């Protein structure tokens, strides 16, 4: 009996130990970690349905708060079908429901399945956006056949000008995994849309607004016990652009069938009146997930329609660069504009082996004005040879050709100004005199962006002052009543140019219109000044055309600069020549602007 | 049978603790059965009240029988119940794929609950009779047989949870009944070795853990494991034979551990070889439900959320979102403790544990004070039925024990368990009452 006692005491000890352990575990999960489990239990029963905020609208420059507005981007009401895969619990039921749903919506089950497989099953996913109302009626009538399938109002973006604004305004899309990980701390949710390019991306935080949500208390079968509005959505702010949709449309039509870029800028404010890149795409199509195949095709297109060629591509500036060479020579007092040179049509570079550099035609005797007007290469070969490459490069840098313009569209690249060191590093060769000659006429290693060249002309027009180019004039509240932010002209740089140099260059460019390569522009009865360029390039893609056509122009010339002055830069890829391909584009834009009352 | 004055010897502490537990249980079954969306109640609480009344009558009735009669007829009780159990397992109408219930039309009973009691009667009787020889290793055979037969039948039903409770019951009764501790420990160690090696191997394979462990890589090869177990067994046999010739304690110190080790390894080879991968995984998930968060782990996760979110004061009666909105599974039976902990918080859960503690400790006290060995063993066995139900059920609910479907005595919904528990309480009262009669 004594042994039994001791063993029973042991059992007593074991029982005490168990009761103490259970109590300690209760202290642990109920008191120490109670708050965490409280949150988890709330997450179980609260099924928050987001109410998407209406995205801010985008208007062109002719906006008045009360009058008529040219709406570039707006929203259309639509329904999205959503679900949370994990809420099904049963995989079979889930597959069956989704199959049935795909049948009703007439979409491919495989696509939906791959979409779902790539997402977190506990998160709300969109099965199909922009569903017709009659489909919703079907789903609502057979709610029992479609458990856990929900639909929500989801405004869909509409781009009223289709392709014309695709690069400037950009487009929106579902937030990607990478974007979500980067932006989740800033209030972005996995189911939201986000600006993917252009202004939609740049000003996304202003445009997106704040989503609201409906707080639903649900049970384990997702039956709704109660519902209340947790937070009302706040619509996004509107953008008022500096772009004139009429000019943009004209530029778009003028560039029809050609690849390249157009930048129209007001040099006295930096306001961009038009920004265009070709080839283009229809943003209305890109934002719809139904057009994955077309989007794939666009992505693989060798002309790269998604590239904004006005700010994201570098081109040799060609003869337009002769202006930089001239400015360098004049500013450093190494050249007199009245010096005349005979152009025989070629230039022999004396050396160990003589090397011949050709001009595209024989210009006979010219002074600097004539050389700019006729774009005489021989004149600038001699000028460049005289002043040397470092001066030219220095001035190219002064003009900001290797700097970002700071335009308010993401993805801008800067031009590349070569140097002796750069060439040694890139090619393993020293800088030859031939390189200097090529540089002085904008061929060779020098590359610049269209916006960079346009900015350079702005500097010339404005006596050295360059304003930061921008596309947004104002941000207004969604009801257009309150101005949230106003973008005033912001000085980008001040180039110390002497007025005489500026006057000389302007005269040369004016002569280029009245009696030169841009002669077509003289019929418009607008005092336009211009400089054309034809860049020799080797195309990897096209055998037939090997030249980029440039025209840089401004108007009005010779008068006092008014607020209405304008700089137009046109680049046509694989055009015939600046005068033949790019100038007509500029001509159409000037003509339209004249009819709009700009001049 | 006993004098009128003996009615005052009824253990009011035990009875009030029991009544309080059943009362809490009925309230919680009411709460768990309530559907806030449809605003209806399943009405199980009414049935439970009815079971309680039956149970109370059964309890009173049991106090009138001399408990020694239970010992006297224990083999007959055991035999009859085993037969009923077998019939149920073969002919019973399956409810949720388990043939565990005998249907009497308007109610059904689960014989396996009563087999627990019958087994305790018979084991107590056996251990009492064989008290002298119980230290002998051979004496472990009959008790094991008594236990293993119903375990096999119940596993065939299949009702894993109920079958599992018999094993610790057997061990506890053998232990308090006076078996050699080294024998019991040896069996435990064999079981642990047999499980640990295959489980660690399966776990590593499943999780795909990198890095190598010399010992585990060694055991990966089951032929090698088998060889090692053979060598150890050989050593054991040699030293066992030697100990007959040179009677020395020294050999005993070799052959017992080497028998244990070799058998452990042998069984682990058997498990590794004969169990399919999914079966081994099932055991792993049983030991660690977090491995399968959507399957059996789901219940534990939801249960822990329910218990934890109750906090100190609880969410209030009928206000537990986990149970009311259906996130908590089996909320009237296996997970009733979670409902208490969610709606009444730490306070309510502690009160419940204290009440259960009163029953267990009172049971131990009755066992220690019993006037004869059979009574002491019987009280000890009954107490361990309660104790292991509490340990396995609450341990599971709060996430410190594997998932096994076992009800919480007195609190969970279920007639058989309630009546069995109340009969058991009746026997405890009976034993305590009779210590005063000489």
Please give a structural write-up.
The complex is a heterodimer of chains A (599) and B (438). In chain A, a hairpin with a 6-residue loop joins strand 20 (472-476) and strand 21. The model of chain A has no long low-confidence stretch (mean pLDDT 87). Chain A has 599 residues and is α+β, with helices and mostly antiparallel strands. The relative contact order of chain A is 0.11. Chain A is 36% helix and 22% strand. Chain A is elongated, with a radius of gyration of 33 Å. Chain A has a six-stranded mixed β-sheet with strand order 7-3-2-12-20-21, with no helix packed on it. Chain A has a five-stranded antiparallel β-sheet with strand order 14-13-25-24-23, sandwiched between helices. Chain A contains 20 helices and 25 strands. In chain A, helix 12 crosses helix 14, helix 13 (368-374) packs across helix 19 and helix 14 packs across helix 17 (433-440). Chain B is an all-alpha fold. Chain B contains 17 helices and four strands. Chain B has a two-stranded antiparallel sheet. A two-stranded antiparallel ribbon of chain B has the order 3-4. In chain B, a hairpin with a 4-residue loop joins strand 1 and strand 2. The longest helix of chain B is centred in the last third of the chain and has 34 residues, at 336-369. Chain B starts with 11 loop residues before the first helix and ends with a helix.
């Amino acid at each position: 009996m004594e042994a039994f006692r001791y063993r029973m005491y042991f059992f007593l000890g074991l029982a005490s130990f168990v009761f103490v352990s259970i109590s300690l575990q209760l202290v642990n999960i109920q008191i120490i970690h109670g708050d965490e489990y409280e949150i988890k239990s709330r997450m179980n029963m609260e099924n928050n349905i987001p109410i998407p905020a209406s995205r801010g609208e985008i208007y062109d420059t002719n906006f008045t708060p009360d009058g008529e507005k040219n709406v570039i981007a707006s929203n259309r009401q639509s329904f999205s079908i959503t679900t949370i895969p994990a809420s099904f619990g049963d995989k079979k039921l889930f597959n069956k429901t989704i199959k049935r749903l795909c049948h009703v919506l007439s979409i491919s089950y495989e696509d939906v399945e791959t979409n779902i497989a790539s997402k977190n099953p506990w998160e709300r996913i969109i099965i199909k956006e922009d569903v017709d109302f009659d489909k919703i009626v079907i789903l609502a009538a057979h709610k029992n056949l479609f458990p856990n399938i929900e639909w929500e109002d989801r405004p869909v973006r509409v781009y009223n000008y289709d392709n014309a604004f695709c690069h400037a305004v950009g487009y929106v899309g579902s937030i990607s995994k990478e974007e979500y990980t980067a932006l989740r701390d800033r209030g972005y949710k996995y189911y939201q849309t986000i600006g993917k390019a252009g202004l939609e991306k740049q000003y996304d935080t202003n445009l997106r607004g704040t989503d609201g949500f409906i707080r639903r208390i649900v049970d384990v079968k997702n039956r709704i016990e109660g519902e209340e509005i947790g937070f009302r959505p706040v619509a996004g702010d509107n953008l008022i652009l500096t772009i004139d949709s009429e000019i943009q449309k004209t530029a778009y039509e003028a560039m029809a069938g050609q690849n390249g870029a157009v930048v129209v800028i007001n040099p006295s404010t930096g306001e961009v009146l038009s920004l265009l890149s070709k080839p283009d795409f229809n943003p209305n199509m890109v934002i719809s997930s139904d057009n994955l195949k077309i989007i794939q095709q666009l992505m693989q297109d060798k002309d790269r329609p998604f590239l904004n060629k006005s700010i994201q591509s570098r081109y040799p500036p060609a003869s337009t660069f002769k202006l930089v060479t001239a400015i360098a020579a004049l500013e450093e007092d190494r050249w007199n504009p009245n010096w005349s040179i005979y152009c025989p049509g070629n230039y022999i570079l004396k050396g160990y082996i003589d090397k011949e550099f050709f001009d595209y035609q024989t210009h006979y005797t010219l002074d600097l004005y004539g050389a700019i007007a006729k774009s005489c290469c021989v004149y600038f070969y001699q000028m460049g040879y005289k002043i040397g490459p470092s001066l030219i490069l220095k001035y190219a840098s002064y003009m900001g050709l290797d700097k970002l313009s700071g335009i308010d569209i993401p993805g801008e690249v800067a031009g590349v100004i070569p140097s002796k060191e750069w060439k040694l590093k890139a090619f393993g060769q020293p800088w030859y005199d031939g390189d200097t000659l090529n540089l002085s006429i904008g061929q060779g290693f020098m590359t610049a962006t269209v916006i960079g060249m346009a900015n350079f002309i702005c500097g010339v027009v404005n006596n050295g002052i360059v304003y930061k180019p921008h596309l947004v004039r104002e941000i207004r509240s969604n009801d257009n009543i309150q101005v949230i932010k106003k973008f005033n002209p912001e000085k980008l740089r001040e180039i110390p140019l002497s007025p005489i140099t500026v006057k000389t260059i302007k005269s040369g460019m004016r002569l280029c219109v009245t009696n030169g390569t841009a002669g077509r522009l003289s019929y418009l009865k607008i005092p336009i000044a211009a400089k054309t360029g034809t860049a020799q390039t080797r195309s990897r893609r096209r055998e037939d055309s090997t030249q980029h056509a440039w025209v840089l122009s401004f108007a009005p010339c010779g008068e006092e600069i008014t607020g209405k002055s304008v700089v137009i830069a046109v680049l046509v890829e694989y055009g015939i020549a600046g005068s033949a391909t790019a100038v007509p584009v500029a001509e159409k834009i000037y003509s339209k602007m004249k009819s709009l009352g700009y001049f | 049978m006993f004098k009128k004055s003996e009615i005052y010897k009824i253990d009011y502490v035990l009875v009030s603790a029991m009544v309080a537990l059943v009362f809490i249980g009925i309230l919680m079954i009411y709460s768990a059965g309530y559907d806030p969306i449809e605003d209806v109640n399943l009405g199980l609480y009414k049935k439970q009240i009815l079971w309680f009344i039956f149970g109370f009558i059964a309890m009173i009735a049991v106090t009138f029988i001399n408990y020694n009669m239970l010992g006297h007829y224990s083999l007959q009780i055991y035999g009859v119940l085993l037969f009923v159990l077998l019939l149920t397992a073969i002919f019973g109408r399956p409810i949720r794929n388990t043939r565990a219930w005998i249907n009497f039309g308007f109610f059904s009973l689960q014989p396996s609950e009563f087999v627990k009691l019958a087994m305790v009667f018979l084991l107590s009787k056996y251990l009492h009779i064989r008290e002298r020889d119980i230290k002998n290793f051979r004496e472990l055979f009959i008790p094991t047989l008594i236990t293993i037969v119903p375990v096999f039948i119940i596993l065939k039903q299949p009702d894993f949870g109920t079958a599992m409770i018999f094993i610790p019951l057997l061990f506890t009764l053998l232990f308090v009944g006076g078996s050699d501790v080294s024998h019991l420990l040896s069996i435990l160690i064999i079981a642990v070795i047999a499980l640990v090696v295959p489980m660690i191997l399966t776990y590593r394979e499943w999780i795909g853990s990198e890095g190598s462990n010399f010992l585990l890589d060694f055991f990966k090869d089951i032929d090698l494991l088998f060889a090692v177990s053979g060598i150890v067994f050989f050593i054991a046999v040699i030293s066992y034979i030697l100990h007959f010739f040179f009677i020395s304690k020294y050999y005993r110190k070799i052959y017992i551990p080497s028998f244990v080790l070799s058998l452990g390894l042998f069984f682990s080879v058997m498990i590794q070889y004969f169990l399919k991968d999914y079966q081994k995984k099932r055991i792993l998930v049983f030991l660690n439900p977090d491995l399968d968060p959507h399957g059996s782990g789901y219940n534990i996760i939801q249960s822990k959320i329910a218990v934890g979110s109750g906090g100190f004061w609880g969410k209030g009666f009928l206000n537990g979102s986990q149970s009311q909105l259906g996130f908590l599974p089996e909320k009237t039976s296996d997970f009733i403790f979670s409902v208490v902990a969610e709606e009444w918080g730490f306070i309510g859960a502690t009160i419940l544990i204290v009440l259960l503690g009163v029953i267990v400790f009172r049971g131990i006290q009755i066992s220690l004070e019993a006037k004869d060995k059979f009574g002491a063993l019987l009280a000890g066995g009954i107490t361990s039925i309660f104790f292991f139900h509490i340990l396995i059920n609450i341990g599971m609910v709060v996430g410190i024990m594997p998932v096994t479907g076992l009800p919480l005595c007195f609190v969970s919904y279920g007639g058989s368990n309630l009546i069995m528990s109340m009969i058991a309480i009746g026997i405890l009262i009976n034993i305590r009452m009779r210590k005063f009669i000489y």
